[in-house]
Specification:
Chain B: It is found in: Endoplasmic reticulum membrane. Chain B: It is a multi-pass membrane protein. The complex is a heterodimer of chains A (927) and B (240). Chain A is mostly helical and 927 residues long. Chain A contains 33 helices and eight strands. The longest helix of chain A has 35 residues. Chain B is mostly helical and 240 residues long. Chain B is globular. At the A-B interface, helix 19, helix 20, helix 21 and helix 31 of A face loops of B.
Chain lengths: 927, 240
């Protein structure tokens, strides 16, 4: 027994170690080159006839950088676009349109990094995006075009819009007004906050870069998708702002040399979300505008509106460039050195600004030299010297990535050094682009950066943990349905982790397996006892409830945005009272449950130890309700107030006076009241149960566990979106039906495993970053507190699994059933009583079993062992999949996010949920 | 956990596995039958993929015909056993064949009606419970239910009738395995497993509802029938 505990502890400790080692190998921290870039020595002065330090003259000296969050390419270029002014500029030739490919993860912070540094942000930035205050993620020490523009003489920056920029560039801006994107229901205020500064700033002449970041369009997308009726008016609004700024550039003298860039940081998918790698998410628009562009656009495509290209997907309009190309292009156009960590390539359409070929070559050569430094740092063993190597053997295939780049660089060196008159400037330019695009491609794909030994160590450690766990489990001599179901589930899961589409559609697997398991429970129970109304058999009811739960939220990639119960319209607009009736019922149910616990506690203090088996009387019940009602009501009001601001379309059917009243409440204060009230009740009930337990010798009934579970439910629904709260009513039904089924411990473990996963996906989660719900992460938090926000974020996204973890501890210890003493010999043995007699016998037997289970830690140990085995196998299979498929096309879009989720499951959920909370409720159940 | 069947009010005779009829035709046809059924399904498969509803209706008719032929030729009708008919008649009697066929063809059609009216809606409801679309694809799901019902339930009704107690045993997997019972279990398991390929991103036409489910049911039925009739015949399914 003791050995088993030790082994289980070792297995559990190995898991986080393995996960972290693997993570450091899988998401290597990319070293960046510190300091600002300066114009460096070009070389080949004599051959090319340029002076050493000279710089080609820049056509622009000011920049207006307008980011419209989630501005997908078709919102600007498509036939249904509302941005007719931009389109007219494209036709005129004063605007150059592109589709800027935004690499996954398509979230604002990494994308702003990509646009400003020219680098490709790593997946580490995703984690840092949620821990925004982390100082290592700011760009204040990195080389960006903002830093370069600021370093110029008289350089001043102004910024209006999304406060991500203020967090990334602390102290950079002369004037700034940040807006936070807290409530996505805000379509207008966030944008008006930006627009109101524009006219004034257009009159100021002291800045050389103005950055604007509009959030409204993204909010509309999140709320109602790209086809929302609000989308077109918003595009027209943005178009109007572009018109204002552009006409100011045309008319104001001090703005005459201003480059105006309009771009999206990322796009959106059909569901209006982003974060992943669907074509819609990775295809934002990019437009350069200035009257001066007319000089260079004579020979360019000027059709607008237009259709996406035939070859490249649905959203590829005009030429596709990389988002990182923005940084070197701005460097050339505004005349500053290319930022150090840039992996972008100067956009070749703009070369026409410089009539002399030597200037064009100079620009590209600077870009190439800067990029060569990164290549050199990546492949320290290869030679990237400026000496021409005539017919070196390095260009002979097969070439490694680094050798290929070295070969291409030497091609550049060769063409630059040759003085032959046959070699035209075009030749040199082509050679430079050849090197640049190859370097961009190779350096952007991080395949070469994996630390494979660490990946293997991490994977091996996980499998050691799995083996150690296997030793702690009792030998599998008897083949039981729960055992078979458990084994098949984890084996099939490990196989499916290698299929990218099943990672995206993982919910389907769990829904499918859960249905099968419930049906199996039905058969298994029917073998013992046939219920004449089999339609109402608890297992069938579980199946029915499960069927409703799985349709509640559509999740996954394949059918993103398809209809589900939440979006079917029955909860929206005037019928939203249906939703609130269900939400109210959920709150009512929990409140009444808690009130019973409080009533019992009052009784304990009232009578002291006089009553052994204390059953609350009516007066106490009434007192309990009186005591708990304020808590329940506050929690409900908080949800209503929060929803009125976060999702007003869900509260239209509610009395407007009530809505106005709740809108005036301070959300932070109300949330704190709810949390404090819950904590206070927990403490109070714990003390009273402790007292009751102390007074009553012998075993307890486990009422404390139920009380904690009910208080936990209240906390979890506070951390859940209003439209998902009715799910907890359904979860409650499932819990009830499960307790009717009298499952064996092994069956409970299998059920727990399935329901934990099912509830996770049913609440709308998936394995994509885009499905992380931030809205409840700030409840009761004012200001920014990483720990509190991180904890609330985890709790709000994993609320369903946490609920079922606690529920499984309750099912295992089956507390709350008073001991029944039935004298079997006194029970009538006549035929018609026979059934009742058996019923009583069975009840007494199951109670006895429950009591035994509670007393021995064996049952709990086995449950923990099986859950640890599951986490080990699941994490291990994800690790193997990530290692084996590390060169797979979808590694950054499907498998990396899955690994992030596996980390959260394996560390946060396993330790906080299964081991922490689960044990707590289990222990409380023995009181 | 101990099994508590003893509490049943009236004791039931121990259940026997179904033997196929003791004739050469029966012994031969029972093996030809799955080949025929699967061939027809395979032949119709392209049109089922192209347009499920009409093709599934079209395939339902030969399936029903073949199943009726199968039960009439190979299986003893309700209450009968595999051998009695021939033993009781005197040898050389001419009407033997027609008489036995008449005795089997009527219950076969009755089973078809039962499978259509009773079992198809029940199985369709089960499909919905397992995740079939509720608001769309009604005809698709109903036809999938009909195919599963014709494959699994029709022979079972023919051999066991509609006796409630027997059906309880059937659902609770308490009957000894035979080829009819094995076919039913195989159909249900096959249909369930048929859902696995649907979410894959292969973008094939056959991944659409309900092609994989019906295909899984057919394959599962053939496998179950074969295993039930040959390998596991007479065994009882042990649960715990």
């Amino acid at each position: 027994m003791a050995l088993r505990t030790v082994l289980l502890t070792v297995a559990n400790l190995l898991i986080p170690v393995a996960i972290l080692i693997f993570a450091t190998g899988f998401f290597p921290y990319k070293p960046f080159m510190p300091g600002l870039a300066e114009y460096e020595k070009l070389g080949w002065e004599q051959a090319m006839g340029w002076k050493e330090e000279s710089v080609p003259e820049a056509p622009f000296d000011k920049l207006v950088f307008m980011v419209v969050d989630a501005l997908r390419s078709d919102f600007v270029f498509g036939e249904d676009s509302g941005m007719s002014f931009v389109q007219s500029l494209i036709r005129e030739g004063t605007a150059l349109p592109f589709t800027a490919h935004a690499a996954s993860p398509t979230i604002t912070m990494p994308k702003v990094k990509a646009m400003t540094t020219g680098s490709i942000p790593s997946f580490l930035d995703v984690i840092l995006n949620f821990a925004e205050s982390d100082t290592t993620s700011t760009l204040s020490t990195q080389d960006t075009w903002l830093a370069q523009l600021r370093a110029k003489q008289g350089g001043k920056l102004v910024m209006y819009g999304d406060d991500t920029w203020l967090k990334l560039f602390p102290g950079f801006f002369e004037r700034a007004d940040g807006t936070s994107s807290f409530f996505v229901s805000d379509f207008t205020e966030v944008d008006n906050n930006v627009t109101r500064h524009v006219p004034e700033e257009l009159l100021n002449s002291d800045w050389n870069a103005m950055i604007m970041h509009y959030l409204g369009l993204d909010h509309i997308g999140h709320k109602a998708g790209p086809k929302s009726p609000n989308m077109l008016p918003k595009q027209k609004e943005m178009d109007g702002i572009v018109r204002d700024i552009y006409s100011a550039i045309e008319n104001e003298d001090h703005l005459s040399k201003t480059l105006f860039v309009l771009c999206g940081d990322h796009g959106m998918n059909e569901g209006g979300n982003h974060g992943g790698s669907a074509a819609g998410e990775t295809s934002p628009a990019l437009v350069f505008m200035s009257p001066k562009l007319k000089d260079i656009s004579q020979h360019m495509e000027k059709v607008s509106p237009t259709k996406p290209k035939d070859k490249g997907g649905e959203f590829e309009y005009y030429r596709m460039v990389e988002q990182s190309d923005i940084a070197p292009t701005l460097a050339g156009l505004l005349g500053f050195p290319v930022p150090r960590n840039n992996l972008g390539v100067f956009i070749k359409e703009f070369l026409s600004f410089w009539p002399h070929a030597a200037d064009r070559i100079r620009l590209l050569l600077r870009n190439a030299r800067q990029m060569k430094m990164i290549v050199e740092a990546t492949y320290p063993n290869l030679s990237f010297e400026d000496e021409s190597k005539a017919a070196g053997n390095e260009c002979e295939p097969p070439l490694s990535d680094g050798q290929d780049l070295a070969c291409k660089w030497h091609g550049v060196v060769d063409t630059m050094s040759t003085t032959s008159r046959h070699l035209t400037a075009e030749h040199r330019i082509d050679q430079l682009f050849w090197f640049l695009t190859a370097a961009q491609e190779k350096m952007s794909s991080t395949a070469s950066n994996y630390d494979v030994p660490r990946l293997i160590i991490g994977t091996v450690l996980t499998f050691v943990s799995v083996l150690v766990t296997l030793f702690t489990l009792p030998s599998l001599r008897r083949i039981t349905p729960p055992g078979v179901a458990y084994t098949l589930t984890i084996i099939l899961y490990s196989v499916l982790m290698f299929a990218s589409s099943y990672v995206e559609e993982e919910h389907n697997f769990w829904y499918w397996a859960t249905s099968g398991w419930f049906f199996c429970l039905f058969i298994s129970k029917s073998r013992k006892e046939w219920q004449s109304k089999f339609v109402f058999h608890p297992a069938i009811m579980l199946l029915v409830t499960h069927r409703i739960i799985r349709r509640w939220n559509q999740t996954g990639q394949k059918y993103a945005g398809a209809d589900d119960i939440v979006h079917s319209g029955i909860f929206h607009g005037n019928t939203s009272f249906i939703l609130w009736a269900l939400v109210g019922a959920t709150y009512m149910d929990i409140t009444i449950r808690i009130s019973r616990h409080v009533a019992r506690s009052i009784l304990v203090f009232d009578k002291g130890s006089s009553s052994e088996d204390s059953q609350a009387v009516d007066a106490n019940r009434f007192m309990g309700v009186i005591a708990v009602l304020p808590l329940g009501a506050t929690a409900f009001v908080f949800k209503l107030a929060f929803t009125a601001r976060d999702a007003p379309e869900l509260t239209y059917g509610i009395n407007q006076g009530l809505i106005q009243w709740v809108e005036d409440l301070s959300l932070v204060d109300v949330a704190r009241m709810v949390f404090a009230g819950t904590a206070l009740s927990a403490v109070w009930i714990t003390i009273s149960e402790w007292k009751r337990n102390r007074d009553r010798r012998g075993e307890g009934s486990g009422d404390l566990a139920i009380a904690l579970f009910d208080l936990l439910s209240l906390f979890l629904i506070t951390q859940t979106k209003a439209q998902n709260i009715p799910l907890y009513l359904l979860f409650r039904f499932q819990f009830f039906f499960l307790s009717l089924l009298d499952l064996t411990p092994a069956a409970i473990t299998t059920t727990t495993l399935l329901l934990i996963q099912t509830s996770f996906f049913a609440l709308g989660n998936s394995n994509a970053i885009s499905s992380i719900d931030l809205s409840n992460a700030y409840n009761g938090v004012s200001g920014y507190n990483v720990i509190a926000v991180g904890l609330l974020l985890f709790l709000s996204n994993w609320a369903g699994p946490i609920y079922f973890t606690a529920a499984s501890s309750l099912l295992l210890s089956s507390p709350g059933r008073p001991r029944r003493n039935i004298a079997m010999n006194e029970v009538d043995s006549r035929d018609w009583v026979q059934k009742e007699r058996e019923h009583l016998e069975r009840m007494a037997k199951s109670e006895e079993e429950g009591r035994k289970r509670r007393e021995s830690s064996e049952v709990w140990g086995r449950h923990v062992g099986l859950m640890t085995l599951w986490v080990g196998v699941a994490t291990g299979s994800v690790m193997v999949a990530c290692t084996v498929l590390r060169t797979h096309l979808f590694i950054w879009t499907v498998f990396s996010p899955k690994y992030l989720y596996a980390m959260a499951w394996g560390i946060a959920f396993h330790f906080g949920g299964t081991l922490g909370l689960g044990s707590l409720v289990w222990r409380a159940g023995r009181w | 956990m101990a099994t508590v069947i003893s509490s049943q009010t009236k004791p039931r005779p121990p259940a026997h596995p179904i033997d196929i009829l003791n004739s050469d035709t029966a012994r031969l046809y029972t093996h030809i039958h799955p080949i025929l059924v699967l061939s027809i399904y395979a032949f119709q498969f392209p049109s089922i993929v192209a347009d499920p509803v009409p093709a599934l209706i079209k395939t339902l008719i030969p399936l029903a015909a073949l199943q009726i032929a199968y039960v009439a030729i190979c299986l003893p009708p309700t209450g009968g056993t595999a051998t009695p008919v021939i033993d009781k008649k005197k040898p050389g009697e001419k009407k033997k064949v027609e008489g036995s066929l008449a005795k089997t063809i009527v219950p076969a059609f009755l089973s078809l009606i039962t499978a259509t009216i009773l079992s198809t809606p029940l199985l369709t409801a089960t499909l919905v419970l397992f995740g079939a679309p509720l608001t769309t694809h009604h005809a698709h799901t109903l036809l999938a239910g009909a195919h599963i019902s014709f494959l699994s339930t029709l022979p079972l009704v023919y051999v066991h009738g509609v006796d409630g107690a027997t059906w309880r045993e059937i659902i609770a997997l308490l009957r000894p395995v035979d080829e009819v019972y094995g076919g039913m279990i195989g159909t249900v398991v096959g249909a369930w497993l048929g859902a696995i390929p649907i979410p894959l991103d292969w973008d094939r036409e056959w991944q659409k509802w309900p092609v994989t489910i019906v295909s899984g049911a057919y394959v599962g039925w053939a496998v179950g029938k074969l295993l039930g009739g040959l390998v596991f015949k007479g065994k009882k399914i042990m649960f715990e």
